[in-house]
């Protein structure tokens, strides 16, 4: 589904990614862990199409297409979804407007009919229940005045509505208390299965205890230094990045 | 010879001669330096012909009121003015030759009086001038003690691109405990050149709330002056300029805290596209003895194209030492992170831009609450935005 080969990227003159190689097959869940500043969020942003990074070398192929040549919305239409580490507040735009516009934009480009108001409201209410969110969230401005936990839940709500093929969750666990972590984790688990692939970017094992990855990769200094199964995450939790590096 | 000289000469009055001697303001006049005044001087303006009766809508046509409404608590006459009103007009005349010319060419001032304690709602339409004509009008609005006037002003929308010129000067006095809400939705035709001057005097405990949206006209300039002359007088002035094509929109605001314990709040937003240009000059003056006064001002400007231009100028002039004052002014384009967020959810770049522009405007439109004119303003806004139909569909389809 996704093949990243020798990906190099920089911001300004500073190189961030220095040759990433990663293969994600349909239905797989990959966790990318690594210390601060290792390039995890840069990788997530590049996959979603943020243009502040310059790809200097390498390629990203998604469903046999050159992902890097696509605009952010074209990636969304093809099923790429990024759950932001810092979800953006948009004063003046009601959450429900964003959700409905997004759902129908994606449906249209997938050859599905747009949802009518009643159908959409039924769907969104069902998903709100899963995420244990109040309906009032729909009528608030996008992420404005939301707590950290509410913002992350809102991201997963969007993910549930958009039903992506490739979901990239960038530090979705950061800023969450234990209960919110469980709700978010279970919300993601509901989407697991079939051909849907997930890339989890995280610092800690605690999210991985809820969403068990098939593969764990350690990203450091812009490269994937180590790959393994879930036991690698457990080792990291015990020994830390330094311990792994020393070994 | 200016474009108004022929009209002024025909008047044969001292006022007209005085106006000609002063001459029209030019780029060298500080408060007019961005205004494309050449159109005033280089157009052979002709006298507005007598107004055509417009159905039964109360309005201003060629500088005159037409279809006067009959409402309890409201009287509308032509003159006479009080001494202080005459003196105020004279002070305005001294500002520049265009105001002097406008007064010289206007008929006897109209006087709207709201009796003390009465609540009156007025809908007023500014009708388009006849082709190539210049029209000038004067009006005085007196809102009595504890009275409340709601004045919603709309503009006739025409597709006629012929140049027209309108000047409309209004003096407003709010007596003690009076209130006035004035909402102006300017959607004049593309040939219109509008110059409106409003001077408001707000007495003790009185409140003046003003909202302006400029969508239409080739050139629209509003000079709004609010004098807070009684303790606990309050004013709120808000506005949204939606400027595109080769339009020029201009608001010059002067709020004068003449006595203590007075408050003012101002929020203005401009969205400028194409080769449009918008000027927003917001000056707040707090006199030496106006202690315990408070003012806040926010001006935000959105430049939507490379050739668009804004001239924002917030000014605070404070002579008292016990006041609260804040002001903020920003100029920028749409937020790249917000755009990316929306696009990453599948919205096209054009839809994302429309949604963010709408959100930007909504921040100021919100002060209008749930009113008919707000609905009209939103409809017009969505009609102006490229891809505004997305938002209209969302609004229509989601019953919130």
Structure notes:
The complex is a heterodimer of chains A (247) and B (400). Chain A has 247 residues and is an alpha/beta fold. Chain A has one domain (2-246): 3-Layer(aba) Sandwich (Rossmann fold). Helix content of chain A is 38%, strand content 29%. Chain A has eight helices and twelve strands. Chain A has helices spanning 40-48, 72-77, 95-109, 117-130, 148-162, 178-190, 206-210, 230-246, and strands spanning 2-11, 14-24, 29-33, 54-62, 65-66, 80-83, 90-94, 141-142, 166-170, 197-202, 215-220, 223-228. A six-stranded mixed sheet of chain A has the order 6-9-10-3-11-12, sandwiched between helices. In chain A, a hairpin with a 2-residue loop joins strand 11 and strand 12. In chain A, helix 5 (148-162) packs parallel to helix 6. The longest helix of chain A has 17 residues, at 230-246. Chain A is globular. Chain A starts with a strand and ends with a helix. The mean pLDDT of chain A is 91. In chain B, helix 1 runs antiparallel to helix 2 (14-22) and helix 2 (14-22) runs antiparallel to helix 5. Chain B is built from nine helices and 20 strands. Chain B has two domains: 5-335, no CATH class; 336-400, no CATH class. Helix content of chain B is 22%, strand content 40%. The longest helix of chain B is centred in the C-terminal third of the chain and has 17 residues, at 349-365. In chain B, the strands form two sheets. In chain B, strands 1, 4, 5, 7, 9, 11, 13, 15, 17 and 19 form a ten-stranded mixed sheet that branches. Chain B has a ten-stranded mixed sheet with strand order 3-2-6-8-10-12-14-16-18-20, covered by helices on one side. With 400 residues, chain B is of the alpha/beta class. Chain B has helices spanning 5-11, 14-22, 38-42, 83-93, 97-105, 336-344, 349-365, 372-384, 388-397, and strands spanning 46-47, 59-61, 64-66, 74-78, 110-114, 119-126, 133-143, 148-155, 164-174, 179-186, 192-202, 207-214, 219-228, 234-243, 248-257, 263-272, 277-286, 294-303, 309-318, 324-332. Classes of the chains: A alpha/beta (247), B alpha/beta (400). Chains A and B meet through helix 2, strand 7, helix 3 and helix 4 of A and helix 6, helix 7 and helix 9 of B.
């Amino acid at each position: 589904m996704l093949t990243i080969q020798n990906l190099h990227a920089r911001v300004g003159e500073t190189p961030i990614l220095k040759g990433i190689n990663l293969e994600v097959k349909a239905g797989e869940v990959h966790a990318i862990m690594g210390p601060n500043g290792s390039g995890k969020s840069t990788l997530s942003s590049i996959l979603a199409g943020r243009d502040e990074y310059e790809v200097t070398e390498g390629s990203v192929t998604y469903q046999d297409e050159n992902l890097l040549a696509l605009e952010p919305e074209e990636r969304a239409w093809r099923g790429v979804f990024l759950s932001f580490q810092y979800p953006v507040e948009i004063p003046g735009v009601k959450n429900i407007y964003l959700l409905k516009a997004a759902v129908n934009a994606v449906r249209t480009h997938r050859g599905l009919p747009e949802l009518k108001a009643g159908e959409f409201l039924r769907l969104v209410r069902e998903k709100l229940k899963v995420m244990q969110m109040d309906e009032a969230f729909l009528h608030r401005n996008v992420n404005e005045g939301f707590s950290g936990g509410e913002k992350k839940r809102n991201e997963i709500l969007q993910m549930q509505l958009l039903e992506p093929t490739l979901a990239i969750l960038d530090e979705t666990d950061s800023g969450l208390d234990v209960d919110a972590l469980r709700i978010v984790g279970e919300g993601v688990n509901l989407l697991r299965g079939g051909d849907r692939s997930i890339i989890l970017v995280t610092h800690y094992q605690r999210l991985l205890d809820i969403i068990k990855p098939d593969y764990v990769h350690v990203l450091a200094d812009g490269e994937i230094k180590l790959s393994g199964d879930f036991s690698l995450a457990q080792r990291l939790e015990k020994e830390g990045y330094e311990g792994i590096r020393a070994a | 010879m200016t474009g108004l000289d022929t009209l002024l000469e025909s008047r044969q009055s001292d006022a007209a001669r005085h106006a000609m001697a002063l001459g029209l303001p030019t780029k060298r006049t500080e408060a007019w330096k961005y205004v494309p005044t050449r159109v005033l001087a280089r157009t052979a303006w002709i006298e507005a012909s007598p107004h055509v009766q417009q159905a039964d809508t109360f309005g201003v046509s060629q500088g005159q009121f037409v279809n006067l409404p009959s409402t309890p608590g409201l009287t509308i006459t032509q003159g006479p003015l009080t001494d202080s009103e005459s003196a105020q007009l004279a002070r305005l005349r001294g500002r520049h030759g265009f105001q002097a010319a406008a007064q010289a060419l206007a008929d006897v001032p109209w006087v709207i009086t709201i009796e003390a304690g009465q609540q009156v709602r007025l809908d007023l339409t500014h009708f388009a001038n006849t082709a190539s004509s210049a029209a000038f009008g004067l009006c005085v609005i007196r809102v009595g003690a504890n009275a409340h006037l709601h004045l919603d002003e709309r503009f006739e929308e025409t597709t006629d691109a012929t140049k027209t010129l309108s000047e409309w000067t209004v003096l407003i006095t709010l007596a003690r405990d009076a209130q006035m809400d004035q909402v102006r939705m300017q959607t004049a035709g593309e040939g219109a050149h509008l110059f409106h001057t409003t001077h408001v005097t707000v007495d003790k405990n009185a409140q003046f709330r003003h909202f302006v949206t400029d969508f239409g006209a080739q050139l629209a300039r509003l000079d709004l002056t609010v004098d807070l002359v009684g303790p606990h007088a309050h004013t709120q002035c808000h506005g949204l300029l939606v400027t595109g094509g080769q339009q020029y929109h201009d608001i010059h605001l002067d709020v004068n805290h003449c006595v203590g314990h007075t408050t003012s709040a101002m929020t203005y937003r401009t969205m400028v596209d194409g080769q449009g240009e918008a000027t927003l000059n917001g000056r707040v003056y707090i006199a030496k003895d106006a202690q315990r006064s408070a003012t806040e001002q926010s001006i935000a400007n959105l430049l939507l194209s490379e050739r668009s231009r804004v001239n924002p100028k917030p000014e605070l002039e404070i002579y008292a030492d016990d006041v609260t004052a804040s002001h903020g002014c920003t100029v920028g384009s749409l937020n790249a992170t917000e755009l990316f967020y929306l696009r990453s959810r599948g919205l096209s770049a054009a839809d994302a831009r429309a949604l963010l522009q709408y959100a930007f405007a909504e921040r100021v439109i919100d002060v209008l609450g749930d009113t008919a004119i707000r609905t009209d303003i939103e409809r017009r806004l969505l009609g102006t935005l490229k891809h505004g139909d997305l938002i209209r569909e969302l609004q229509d389809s989601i019953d919130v």
